[in-house]
Amino acid sequence: MIVRCMNESRKLKVLIAEDEESFRLVLERVLESRGDYEFESCESGDEVLEILQKKNFDVLILDYKMPGHSGLNILQWMHEQKMDTPVIMLTGAGSENIAVEAMKFGAYDYVRKETFEKEHLPFIINNAYERYLFKREKSLQQLDSEDQKKTTMTFDLLLACIRSYGELMNTSLAIVNTEMAARENELASRMQSDGVKLLNQTFVEMQRQYEVIAMCTKSLLELSNVMFDRFIHAADTSDREKTLRSSLVLVEQYSKHQSSKQEAPK
Predict the structure, then answer these.
(1) What's the CA gap between 60 and 56, in Å, rounded?
(2) What is the pLDDT of residues 35-82, one digit of tens each?
(3) Do 11 and 36 contact (CB within 8 A), yes or no?
(4) Domain boundaries defined on the chain
(5) Do residues 122 and 36 lie in contact, with contact meaning Cβ atoms separated by under 8 Å?
(6) 2-116 has which CATH code?
(7) Is the pLDDT of residue 2 over 50?
(8) DSSP for the chain?
(9) d(Cα 213, Cα 261) in Å, to the nearest integer?
(10) What is the C-alpha to C-alpha distance for residues 79 and 233, in angstroms, rounded to an integer?
(11) Dist CA 191 CA 180 (whole Å)
(12) Phi, psi of 239 (to 5 degrees)
């Protein structure tokens, strides 16, 4: 196995797998003369599999016919391993069917040895790698789009639930408020003055509790709208967030007040 490594940074890493020494040397000299690549060479399919399990490359150049595993076998293995490194298949005369089969398994290009022009090798390698980058970017964009769609659907569901709960809570609170007012007047007419005073105090506290619950319900609904706009529409929600923070401070203060009342000795 022959290894050549250039010291300059971010050059394409290429693995050459070719059992014919003379042709392999031609490929090596082309890459070495350009100075744009780091490359490693081997001459059997078994070596290729061993190397690929330990190292990563930007482009693979595989001879379709090698000792051990063929280039096509390696392509199949890469497909099973979900390894998407771009492959350029080297074929011989009369092996058009092999080339077609290789393309089906994901090879980016193929080179017929009998018509090979060494000046074209850098172009073939760079073109395969650029196509790979384009394909990967397109795939990532598709994943991002699908994630965005799922996120939007989740927020839609969250917003719908909170709105429904908010409407139900508001309706229930309105009924409670109406019932409280009606019962307060009815009970007051049947009680002595001391009892009426106590009743009034009780209903005042209940009214205060009602207002707190109503404020929390409104804030929760507003929060859901802010989250939806911020994450889905990327809108500026700073003003509404300030209002929510103020509401949160009030709720926290009231919560502390209520806790201290419950802990006070009776």
Answers:
(1) 10
(2) 889 999 998 999 999 999 999 999 999 988 888 888 888 988 988 888
(3) yes
(4) 2-116, 145-263
(5) yes
(6) 3.40.50.2300
(7) no
(8) -EEE---SSS-EEEEEE-S-HHHHHHHHHHHHHH-SEEEEEESSHHHHHHHHTT---SEEEEESS-SSS-HHHHHHHHHHTT----EEEEE-TT-HHHHHHHHHTT--EEEEGGG--GGGHHHHHHHHHHHHHHHHHHHHHHHHHHHHHHHHHHHHHHHHHHHHHHHHHHHHHHHHHHHHHHHHHHHHTTS-HHHHHHHHHHHHHHHHHHHHHHHHHHHHHHHHHHHHHHHHS----HHHHHHHHHHHHHHHHHHHHHHHHHHS--
(9) 18
(10) 39
(11) 16
(12) -65, -45
pLDDT by residue (tens digit) across 131-140?
A: 888 888 887 7
Contact 108, 133 (CB under 8 A): no
Strand order in the sheet with 12-17: 2-4, 37-42, 12-17, 59-63, 87-91, 109-112
Exposure string of 29-44, with b = 16+ CB inside 10 Å and e = fewer, is ebbeeeeebbbbbbbb
Residue that has been written with the tokens 């940074």 in this structure = 9
Residue 247: how many other CB atoms lie within 10 Å: 17
To the nearest 10°, the Cα dihedral for 76, 81, 83, 86? 0
